[in-house]
């Protein structure tokens, strides 16, 4: 009986390895999508932007195949509660990666529109820096998952604050450019959405890191996350109209 | 053996009923959140906006308890492939409802900022109409789930186009108000995000309806959805800067 259990356990482990390989592949594609979307925006490279747009289908296909695989494993192996938790976490992570792919694709779409307009100051460089930070966070979050490294996952969660801060700074910049010259408004609206997209990618990466923390220590997001959203309730900032966009939807 | 199977099946059914009751409760709270967020914006009712903000915790708590329940059922009952598909669908639906709650909360947050500013034309009425449409879509999507009514689910998916259209119209209106008077920019940025939030709620409702179609006929979103996004690639519209925001992140 013990041998049978071991056999079942190792079959599950093999299945899990297959699923994890898919997550890593998705992660690699998502990282590339973030980097290339930001690069195409800064260098006004329409061809690269188009690659990001068409490349998203591969991420979507991986998510679908991963979900099917995960459902098959659950049905076939009837995993224990803790093994089941791993499979469900991986499914959530794949949903986060799929969303990151969508957001990169949306950035690339806006880039193809923006290349036809006047550049707005140095904002595309700032956006690229912000995107690079998120990409590095994603890389670390996936490493943290594979190595079950809680400290690294917590570090990723911490770094998301910097991304939020960069977003706030950019938001103020776009407002200034719009007030300066109304002809900047359309481009700024697109750039603002791109900044918001990158900020949301950071939230998805944070969610992946939170899954890692949950898997390693059982701690839930509420126990970890100390959201500092004073700016959205501070009336002075509210009156200045510089708030309300730094808050995530949480 | 047959009796044993029947016993197992009915235990699963009982569990599923419990999970479904939770989804319906979540759905009811999400509907109320949409309606009240839009109402508080139009009537400038800060107290109601605060209720929406604090009420979101109940939706989050239901999602968590639903996910735990679902994981418990999968671990305990080892459901068949088709039963497993139902449980996984419900988990996805609960994630959609949780996001709708978050987006409503974000709307309410922005409302508490907007009540301190000059109203922008009749845009809050338009936003409330848009929110009402999404709320009715959600009601129908949940009815379609309970009754396994594919036709109703397809109708919901179809109606999301109208919501996208309303968003496009509002986007143009906000641009006009900003160009007209730069002092409108801050309020319009908030209102624009609110419009985008409602449009994204529509996407989440569509995703719920797609789950229903998948459960009833096995058809996947790609087989159903015919996205009409000509406006984002039509160069004339692009040059006018009136595009790029009507596209979802798909």
From TrEMBL, chains A, B:
Cross-referenced Gene3D superfamilies: Phosphate transport system protein phou homolog 2, domain 2
SUPFAM superfamilies registered for this protein in UniProt: PhoU-like
Chain spans, region Disordered: 224-250
Domain PhoU: 23-111, 127-212
Biased composition (Basic and acidic residues): 224-233
InterPro entries given in the database record: PhoU, PhoU-like_sf, PhoU_dom
GO biological process: intracellular phosphate ion homeostasis; negative regulation of phosphate metabolic process; phosphate ion transport
Function: Plays a role in the regulation of phosphate uptake.
NCBIfam families documented for this protein: phoU_full (TIGR02135)
Family: Belongs to the PhoU family.
Protein's name according to its UniProt entry: Phosphate-specific transport system accessory protein PhoU
């Amino acid at each position: 009986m013990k041998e049978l259990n071991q056999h079942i356990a190792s079959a599950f482990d093999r299945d899990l390895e297959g699923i994890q390989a898919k997550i890593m592949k998705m992660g690699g594609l998502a990282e590339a999508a973030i980097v290339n979307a930001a690069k195409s925006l800064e260098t006004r490279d329409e061809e690269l932007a188009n690659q990001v747009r068409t490349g998203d289908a591969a991420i979507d296909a991986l998510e679908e195949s991963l979900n099917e695989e995960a459902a098959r494993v659950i049905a076939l192996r009837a995993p224990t509660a803790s093994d089941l938790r791993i499979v469900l976490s991986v499914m959530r992570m794949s949903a986060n990666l799929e969303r990151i792919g969508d957001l990169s694709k949306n950035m690339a779409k806006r880039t193809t529109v923006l290349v036809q307009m006047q550049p707005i100051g140095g904002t595309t460089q700032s956006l690229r820096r912000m995107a690079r930070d998120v990409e590095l966070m994603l890389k670390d979050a996936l490493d943290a998952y594979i190595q079950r490294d809680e400290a690294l996952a917590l570090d990723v969660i911490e770094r998301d604050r910097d991304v939020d801060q960069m977003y706030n700074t950019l938001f103020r910049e776009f407002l200034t450019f719009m007030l300066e010259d109304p002809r900047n408004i359309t481009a700024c609206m697109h750039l603002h959405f791109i900044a918001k997209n990158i900020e949301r990618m950071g939230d998805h990466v944070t969610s992946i890191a939170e899954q890692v923390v949950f898997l390693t220590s059982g701690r839930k997001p509420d126990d970890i996350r100390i959201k500092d959203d004073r700016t959205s309730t501070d009336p002075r900032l509210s009156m200045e109209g510089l708030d309300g966009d730094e808050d995530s939807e949480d």
